[in-house]
């Protein structure tokens, strides 16, 4: 990593790219896919267990009460993104086919990621408690808001249903380990403060697992079939432009709203993300009978681009930050 840094090459970004290429060549299927799914769930459980053990209860409470921060993130996720998605209709059918534009608009309606948003906020040394609340709130509200937005803005076949198991998954994978971590904090907090390596390893390892799982699923489902290279390149360009606009708006908004730097980091990372884990299952219900692989392709591409770009941003924030004894800062 130190050798690569001399040439301004980030080893973490190279790891993400390498994992994506590996999954494209050797996608997990059958039993391997099931093992990967469980490994990802365990990594996320450990991630939030460590967050709970590391954060002081006062910091967690401050994250819950920071309503201005959460409102900014939710506005970016469920107002800014849908407006940009509607504006991109001018690219249909010249640059985006009808099916691809449907997917682009759909990705603008899904909620923010939870795991990667919080992991990148932690790497960037932002307000981790605030990110936990904002990202989790976005994901939970998205279970209800995304189907409503799809029905209001798009034509879908069949009736849209919301599976209560989505809410249960959020509770079991995120809330439960965080509470357990808070209970274990008196026993392990001092050790974690002296040894940052475990949290750092889980932060980055969980992101790499998500990348591998996402690319594996795309290859198994033949999401790339039927598209010309020029269509794929055009879609990638649109996704890069969309992410650039959202990152610029969230960065500017965070500064104009007077947030501290740790809170600005939350707005940027939580407000610019879109959840593949939530978006894929919803798409199978909301677009029954339609080409799901084509519709979710923009979300898959955007997901990978956001991971690579945000990894670079997180490293940049971390290098600019002054050394702190704690990686999280709730500064309001």
Automatic annotation (TrEMBL):
Keyword DNA repair: no
A family per Pfam: SBF_like
Keywords (A to Z) from UniProt: Membrane, Transmembrane, Transmembrane helix
Superkingdom of this protein's organism: Bacteria
Gene3D superfamilies the UniProt entry points to: 1.20.1530.20
Transmembrane helix is among the record's keywords: yes
Membrane-traversing stretches: 7-26, 38-57, 69-91, 103-124, 131-154, 166-184, 205-224, 230-253, 265-288, 294-314
Protein name: Bile acid:sodium symporter family protein
């Amino acid at each position: 990593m130190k050798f690569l840094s001399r040439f301004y090459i980030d080893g973490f970004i190279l790891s993400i790219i390498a994992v994506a290429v590996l999954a494209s060549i050797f996608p997990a299927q059958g039993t391997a896919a099931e093992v990967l799914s469980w490994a990802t769930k365990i990594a996320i459980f450990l991630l939030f267990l460590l967050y709970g053990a590391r954060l002081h209860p006062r910091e967690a409470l401050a994250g819950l009460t920071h309503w201005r921060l959460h409102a900014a993130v939710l506005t970016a996720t469920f107002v800014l993104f849908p407006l940009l998605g509607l504006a991109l209709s001018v690219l249909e059918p010249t640059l985006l086919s009808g099916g691809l534009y449907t997917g682009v608009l759909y990705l603008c309606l899904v909620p923010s990621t939870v795991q990667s948003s919080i992991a990148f906020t932690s790497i960037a040394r932002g307000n981790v408690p605030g990110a936990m609340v904002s990202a989790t709130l976005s994901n939970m509200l998205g279970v209800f808001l995304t189907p409503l937005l799809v029905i209001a803005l798009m034509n879908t076949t069949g009736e849209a249903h919301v599976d209560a198991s989505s809410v249960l998954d959020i509770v079991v994978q995120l809330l439960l380990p965080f509470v357990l971590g808070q209970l274990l904090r008196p026993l392990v907090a001092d050790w974690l403060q002296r040894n940052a390596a475990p949290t750092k390893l889980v932060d980055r390892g969980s992101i790499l697992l998500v990348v591998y799982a996402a690319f594996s699923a795309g290859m198994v489902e033949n999401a790339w079939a039927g598209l010309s290279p020029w269509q794929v390149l055009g879609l990638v360009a649109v996704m890069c432009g969309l992410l650039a606009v959202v990152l610029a708006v969230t960065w500017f908004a965070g500064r104009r709203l007077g947030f501290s730097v740790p809170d600005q980091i939350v707005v940027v990372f939580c407000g610019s993300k879109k959840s593949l884990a939530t978006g894929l299952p919803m798409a199978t219900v909301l677009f029954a009978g339609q080409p799901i692989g084509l519709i979710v392709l923009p979300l898959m591409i955007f997901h990978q681009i956001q991971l690579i770009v945000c990894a670079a941003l997180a490293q940049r924030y971390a290098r600019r930050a002054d050394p702190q004894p704690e990686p999280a800062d709730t500064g309001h």
